[in-house]
Each structure stands twice: as structure tokens, then as C-alpha cells.
Amino acid sequence: MKRIPHKAEILCVGTELLMGDVINTNAAYLAKRLSALGIGVYRQAVVGDNPARLTEDLTAALARVDLVVLTGGLGPTFDDLTKETAAAVFGRTMELHKPSLDRMTAYFAATGRTMTKNNEKQAMMPTGAVVFDNDCGTAPGLCLEDGAGRLAILLPGPPAEMAAMFESRVEPFLRARTAGVLFSRNVRIMGMGESAVEAALPADIRDSKNPTVAPYCDPGEVRLRVTARADDEATAKALCDAMVKRLKSTPFGDFIYAVDQPSAEAALLAALQKRGMTVATAESCTGGLLAKRLTDIAGSSAVVAGGAVTYQTREKERVLGIPHDLIERYTVVSEPVARAMAEAARRLFDADVAIATTGYAGPGGGTEQEPVGTVYVAVATPAGTTCRRLSLSPRRDRDYVRRVAASAGFVDALRALATP
Hints:
- The chain is an alpha/beta fold.
- The protein has three domains: 7-175, Molybdenum Cofactor Biosythetic Enzyme, Chain A, CATH 3.40.980.10; 181-259, Alpha-Beta Plaits (2-Layer Sandwich); 264-418, Maf protein, CATH 3.90.950.20.
- Helices cover 38% and strands 25% of the residues.
- The protein contains 15 helices and 17 strands.
- The chain has helices at residues 15-18, 26-36, 51-64, 82-89, 98-110, 159-175, 194-200, 203-206, 233-248, 264-275, 289-295, 313-318, 324-330, 335-348, 398-418; strands spanning 7-13, 40-47, 67-71, 94-96, 124-126, 130-132, 141-145, 151-155, 181-189, 212-218, 221-230, 256-259, 279-283, 304-309, 353-359, 374-381, 384-391.
- The strands form four sheets. Strands 2-1-3-8-7-6 form a six-stranded mixed β-sheet, sandwiched between helices.
- Helix 11 links the parallel strand 13 (279-283) and strand 14 (304-309).
- Helix 2 (26-36) packs parallel to helix 6 (159-175).
- The longest helix is centred in the last third of the chain and has 21 residues, at 398-418.
């Protein structure tokens, strides 16, 4: 039976990564995908386009783990040397892979471009390699295996190409070598910090080995990933579902707002779609972030009625019709004004639900009573209007305050929908 990889290292190749010219998003993506497969990532490293240093790093990694995933250096230029270096480490020679050359030739012909001679370099492969087709570009990926069953998987550097190849080619390849099935559920929590959630976890849940429960901290919220391994997916899923049920019975159960939703806005849109309802926004300090995050999701046009960014006081009065004397009495950063904004947006856009934000995102502004980081989030529904005051740390940056305020609005709207 083929050796099952349990431990991995990620090695990203490219001088542009070392220089800071390009942000290395590949490592974070791969770490998550490998972890979901039950393969632990022990190290991540970046090395420049230097064969000697790459040889040193790859050799050292293969001595420590079962699997090394490399990205970058598979292109047609003279400094793309990842394949050649890996081939030397594995004691292989290079040869032309005719199917890859044919795919590349067809790709250039279909796009009406002339394929230069140096592109043929991308079709040269180490002998004995498993080749992964590239559906989003020209450089194929590949896998090399040594006599001890250790693997090196080479992927293209561009993130879109790398991710598509990993999901369509590499993941099935690795799953075929993995014993059993891994299944995960993600539990999303807002209203308690990571340390408070972890402290509230019973000891038997914290120490559980199958399924495992791992906490992660996202801006303003906590995510618990529940992962189980079993011989089949149905059994693994049942283990996860039982654990999720237990988590809902803990002290933080009331703060769980969604399971298996990628974000608060996605959870809200799903709930609105299910009910055939629409949502509108009225924003001050979040400056359109509520609307952006909602409309970033495909299919949101069926749910999002519209939104207004009334940043200045006069626009709150002119566009939303907020009474001048209400603002004079309470100021624009206040619960009465937030409530009035939500109710006005609901009327203005003829929506079922409306979310409003007003506050001080910083770094300037604020008062002694309402310092920087104070945000009022209001939600208007057919059942009435709710509002809460967020007191976010002034040490946090402006983007953090705005992001957390927007997420709070989505979660508050979701909870309002769930209230009988």
C-alpha cells in the first residue's frame, strides 16, 4: 500500500516573495487545505530562485516529513528552476512530456497567440513524475515520490492556478492515499472572545481526539472547527453533528450564530433567501462596507434591496429623513439615531429587514462619553427595532472597527429573524 502522508512542509519559491513585492497567500491556502485532509503542516518556508538554497531546503524538508508542497518556479523563464532542482534531489533526469506540450500548443492556438520556444520548457518533466494538468494556465504541476514513499508536489505560483490545480488534481490524488474519510464542520460564534470560549469548553471536549475541536480567532468572532475521521463520510459526519449538538449546549451555545457558513453575511443572506425576504442598509461609520460584503456574494441581488451611505449629518437628514431635533438632542452617534436610520432604510427601500451603523471608527473623533471605537448597530424588522452599543478598543485600527461593526450588524439581523 502506498505510504499515507501525515506530516507536511510548505516551501514557496520566488525571490519576489522574499523581497515583499508579492504577498505569499499560497502558504495560508495550502495549510488550510492540507489540514482539512488530515495532514499536519509542520513548517512553512520561502526560498528565492536559487537552486543551491532550494536544494538545501527541499532535502532538509524531505528528511523531516512525508510530504513537501512547493509553489512557484514552473514557468518558461530562465530563473524558473523548481522542477530541475527537485528532479536532481530525487535523482531524476528531465524528459519531454508530450501530452503537456500538446495541451500547451492547443491553448496558445485557441487564444490566437504564438507560442515561443521557451514555453516548451514547461512541458519538460522529471522521469517518473505524476503530472497534473493546469486548467487555468500553461505550467503543469507534478508529484515526485522516492523509494521511501516521501512525496514532493510542485504547483504553479500564481494563486488562481495553484488553488484550481490543488482542488481539482492534487486533493483527489492525496485523498486516494489517505486512510479513511475526514469531515469537518465550522461553528461560528459572536459575543464571546476566544479565551472565554476556550475556558467554557468542557475538558472532555477540549481533549477529544475524534472528533477534534480547534478554536480560531477571526475579527470580532470565534470559529470552532470540528473534525472527525471515519471509514466513511456518513460516520464522520455523524460524529461531527453529535459534537456540534454538544457545543450548542455549552455556556456559549447562545452565541453560536451559524454552522458551516463562510461568513456572517453569507449566513444572513441564506436566512433571508430561505424566508423570501429582502435587506437594506443605512451606513455612517462603516462607509458602505455592509452593502459591499453583502453584494460580494453571488446571488445577493435577489435579497439586497439597496443601501445608503449617509456619512455626513446633513445626508442623514436629507436622504433618510432623520429629524434634525433628534440629532441635536442625542448626536449622530447614539442609539435613537441608529434606530431611526434602520427604520428609515427599511421604509426607503421597502425592505423586510434593515441594518444601520453609526459610530466613531477612528483614529480621530469620539467624545468622553462616546470614545473612538463606539458604534451603535440597529436592526429594523417587521417585529420591531433592536439596537446595541459596541465598545471596541481604541487601540484597534479603523478597518477593524468597521469590519467588526458590519459583522455585528449581520449577526444581529440573523438573530432578529430567528426571534419568534
